[in-house]
UniProtKB/TrEMBL annotation, chains A, B:
It holds the Pfam family Epimerase. Residues 3-187 form the NAD-dependent epimerase/dehydratase domain. One of its GO terms (molecular function) is oxidoreductase activity. This is NAD-dependent epimerase/dehydratase family protein. It comes from Stagnihabitans tardus. Signal peptide: none annotated. The keyword NADP applies.
Length: 301, 301
């Protein structure tokens, strides 16, 4: 299958491109992706997307985005990349008569805002509380409408927080969820800025890759007009993370976690959703981890 | 108060401008509005909105839109007027340092799609099933985000179907709800294309005007981050419409209604919402009719 991946050099994009390497891949990102056997292009997302469609890819996986913090700090850039570039892609597709690719879009649980029920159902209302979440919600609406009109066969996948993120600790408010596992697992210290009773919604990078490869093989018609799906995940507390770490790496690893409360981060995290039913996605065969032991195992393999 | 009304020559805009004539009004529409004492401008909504803000209106009432049928027939035009022009207005406001007008936006119950509960709650999910509804939902999301960021003080008012619409019968799928009252009231025949058990959600033109004048006087901060409100209305069946007509104008008026089923219209109407709690709006003092006798009385005065 001819597949175009936008945002192919990111954390998920790189793994996804490897998982799909048997296909005819075109990989695009701001920084040049690098995968043998694939067409790799460095390209700004604001550039005209029409040339990317010249080969009429049967599937397009759209992962490219400005992250939440940057979309909040740079209002215009967030809308330009997270909304306008997605719409330009949809318009470039619509301009090609008879072309109707499968389009998988990486959306986010940031489309939802407080107050939340204990477990968020599939039909919870869209109440983004950030510009990033607003841009994702608007793009979801476009994808449903372009699908209904027959221009694409689309699906928006609302990803849980990805854990354990690889790489060095970053300053994202959600970074500590990964840091307190990844760093102690290699003997390095990490800071926990919130209560260990804090609950959140997780999936491993491998699960995220699995969501997209699974969706590629699905008949999306089964989702009818509602083309945005809450992906499955693991609802767990920080204490459960730490217990899993203790089982895998012992008390000496746990002792590397320094509790240092940060009121700013605690306040941000308090506004995040922490559990979903993900009924429709599970029924369609999407799967994620069911324990932090599995999430740690996914990181270590 | 300095008030700018966009779409001021439409059914609601004209009445609203009259109701607000004690204020310092600027009235804008594609066709030149006509009201003594007001600044009246004929202007395409796709034109640069910046000049309209030169006088820094304290309130902007945005009623201008391509209607549902046209947005469905002309995909590009619907997005250009119903989404892009609204966003251009928001961006023009954002470009003026320190300016934060009250912005009231005429949204629609078309942001909701089937399946519906018997009565739609305020937090029902956004599931538009038309391009028009998608464009309204996207603009609502923008208005909430621009409000949260402090660029405007916004509110989206989701209007019920307006009944009794003045003027000649039109071909809108919802037209018959008005036609079967307005025409027999003046001795003319009308066609009823659906079962009389069909239920829908109504408010008079006078109520719609009242929603906006009431919102003008409200502290919108009370609505927090959720800046889209289902307006109150009357949930009633066609049979209840006809009974009210009989009470007001007698059996001879009812006899002017010819039942002529139209499967296309019946199918469209079956997908429309027919009852809302409108709890938040009612609590904030928004009011609508509670019987079709009142809706007919509003038409006759």
């Amino acid at each position: 299958m001819k597949i175009l991946i936008l945002g192919a050099a990111g954390m998920i994009g790189r793994r996804l491109a490897q998982a799909l390497s048997a296909h005819d891949l075109t990989l695009v990102d701001m920084i040049q992706p690098d995968q043998p056997g694939a067409i790799c292009m460095a390209r700004d997302l604001t550039a005209d997307p029409a040339p990317l469609l010249a080969g009429r890819p049967e599937a397009i996986i759209h992962l490219a985005a400005v992250v939440s913090g940057e979309a909040e700090a740079d209002f215009a850039k967030g809308y330009a990349i997270n909304l306008d570039a997605s719409r330009a892609l949809l318009e470039a597709i619509r301009a090609i008569p008879g072309y109707r690719p499968k389009l998988l879009f990486a959306s986010s649980i940031a489309v939802f805002g407080t107050p939340f029920p204990d477990q968020i159902p599939d039909d919870f209302h869209l109440t983004p509380r950030t510009s990033y979440g607003t841009q994702k919600a608007m793009t979801e609406l476009l994808i449903s409408d372009y699908t209904r009109r027959g221009f694409i066969d689309g699906l928006s996948l609302r990803l849980p927080t990805i854990c354990i993120r690889p790489g060095a600790p970053n300053k994202a408010a959600s970074g500590f969820f990964s840091n307190i596992l990844r760093e102690p697992l290699v003997g390095l210290p990490a800071v926990l800025p919130v209560e260990d009773s804090t609950r959140h919604w997780f999936a491993s990078p491998a699960s995220a890759v699995g969501f997209f490869t699974h969706a590629l093989g699905l008949d999306l018609g089964q989702f009818g007009a509602a083309r945005a799906l809450n992906m499955p995940g693991l609802s767990a507390t920080v204490a459960e993370e730490i217990e899993a770490l203790r089982r895998v790496a012992g008390q000496k690893a746990v002792d590397l976690i320094e509790v240092k409360r940060d009121e700013t981060i605690a306040a941000i995290v308090a506004g995040w959703p922490c559990d979903f039913t993900a009924t429709r996605a599970r029924a369609a065969g999407f799967v994620a981890e069911t324990s932090f032991d599995q999430i740690i195992a996914a990181h270590l393999t």
